Amino acid sequence: MDSWKHKITVPDGIKCKINGINVWDYEWVSTDKKIVVNDPLYHQEYTMEVYEIRTSKKIVKFATGEFSNGIWGFYTESKS
């Protein structure tokens, strides 16, 4: 079973590295999958879309969405 863990909350455009890749520097490809998470600060429930970034060396998978205007929460998958 897969689970998702909060990685970081950042303002729009501020460096956010997942698996060594700054997500703002690449195109996000939708996987057409959505997850439901709770934000780490207020524990409000959000539905976030899952994306992939594909480079010549790796594929990075993450879920993200805006907690508020311009404030993004990023989640990464962990296998259990």
Structure overview:
By secondary structure, the protein is mostly beta strands. It has one domain. Helices cover about 0% and strands about 65% of the residues. A hairpin with a 2-residue loop joins strand 6 (about 60-70) and strand 7 (about 70-80). The N and C termini lie close together (about 5 Å). The model has no long low-confidence stretch (mean pLDDT about 95).
Features:
0% helix, mainly beta, 80 residues, 5-stranded antiparallel beta sheet
Structural class comes to: mainly beta
Low-confidence stretches: none
- Tell me, briefly, the overall form: globular
Mean pLDDT, nearest integer? 93
Largest sheet: 5 strands, antiparallel
Q: Please count the helical segments.
A: 0
- H and E order: EEEEEEE
Percent range for β-strand residues: over 45%
Radius of gyration in whole Å, from Cα?
12 Å
Total count of strands = 7
Terminal residue distance: 6 Å
Q: What is the helical fraction, as a range of percent?
A: under 10%
Number of domains: 1
Q: What's the arrangement of strands in the largest beta sheet?
A: 1-7-6-5-4
Task: Give a topology summary.
Blueprint: E1 2-11, E2 17-18, E3 21-22, E4 29-38, E5 45-54, E6 59-68, E7 71-79
Antiparallel strand pairs: 1-7, 2-3, 4-5, 5-6, 6-7
